[in-house]
Design goal:
Blueprint (H helix, E strand, L loop, with lengths): L1 E2 L4 E5 L7 H9 L4 E2 L8 H10 L6 H12 L1 H8 L3 E6 L5 H9 L5 E6 L2 H14 L4 E6 L17 E6 L9 H15 L4 E7 L4 H7 L6 H17 L8 E8 L4 E8 L3 E5 L2 E5 L4 E8 L3 H7 L3 E8 L5 E8 L16
Parallel strand pairs: 2-6, 3-13, 4-5, 4-7, 5-6, 7-8
Antiparallel strand pairs: 1-2, 8-15, 9-10, 10-13, 11-12, 14-15
Helix pairs in contact: 2-9
Bound molecules: N,N-dimethyl-L-histidine (AVI).
Amino acid sequence: MSVGAGAVEIIDLEPAAADLATDAIAGLVATPKTLPCKLFYDKRGSELFDRICTLPEYYPTRTEIGILHDRIAAIVDVVGPNVQLVELGSGSSEKTRILLDALRDPVAYAPIDISREQLLESADRIHRAYPSLQVQAVCADYTGSFSVPEPRRPPARRVAFFPGSTIGNFHEREARHFLRRIARIVGVGGGLLIGVDLRKSEETLVAAYDDAMGVTAEFNLNALHRLNREVGADFVVDQFEHRSIWNRELGRIEMHLVSRVEQSVEIAGRRFDFAAGEAIRTESAYKYDLEQFAAIADEFRVERVWCDAERNFSVQYLVAECEVDGASPGRLVGSS
Ligand code: AVI
């Protein structure tokens, strides 16, 4: 199927609407209580996230963009010409433009995103900005099963782009498993250009996830509003407050929603009791040092690492080394 100017291809693997109530209940029966961070990203949550990315305390976005701009010549040198670029969770594809402006003769661009509307809009914008580039948009959950389309022109290699340090939102075992899947998708000799946030002072980290204007608090609380709106839960949202803490032992920032009072909440016919001060963990953001991350990306060779001057954030180019489940060079279809 083609959309837009007739030249963007869309491969529609959109999963069935997530059962939010089931996911929420599975987290709230656990001890301690949790909610999945994917709950954040409805329309309102995505707008709030875009605002977070511009906040003075939230250093990752501007630092990563700075690295991409400053090091673009070295990045395109190592990535090489004639690649098929596959972006995982493409969102607005803003950072991609820095790459596409500099890559030598990219064969095709395949943005993958679960949000159909945003995917189509950004794929169409990319098509209009780079009319000779084949754009093959895939509407899919990139953490699930998907396949990447073959481009018309055979690429020299497939390169995945996964910016934003979203890898930090995976628990370590999931991150390892996910990176192995990516290695299989790009094939031996294929690449992964990835943004990885680094360890730093607790003060900087906590502030990045608890800004003075309260935008991150609103983003976190929006998960409860969403459950009220979409599955008829009865959270009294004002009776919860946002908290961000650095879990030193696990090397991660955690976002919590803490119950201000003793209360109970009903979701899809199930009641959940909260003690005053009891927390729901809504997100974990792991911060790595370079050695730790290299150990997790165990089926890649770390080819190059670029950091900002303060070593707050890294952009890394990894090359897939291991043959996984029969993947071989040039065999370019991946699934979990
Ligand atoms: C999407 N992800 C990489 C963000 C992060 O920094 O973990 C989500 C976020 N949560 C609060 N602020 C930003």
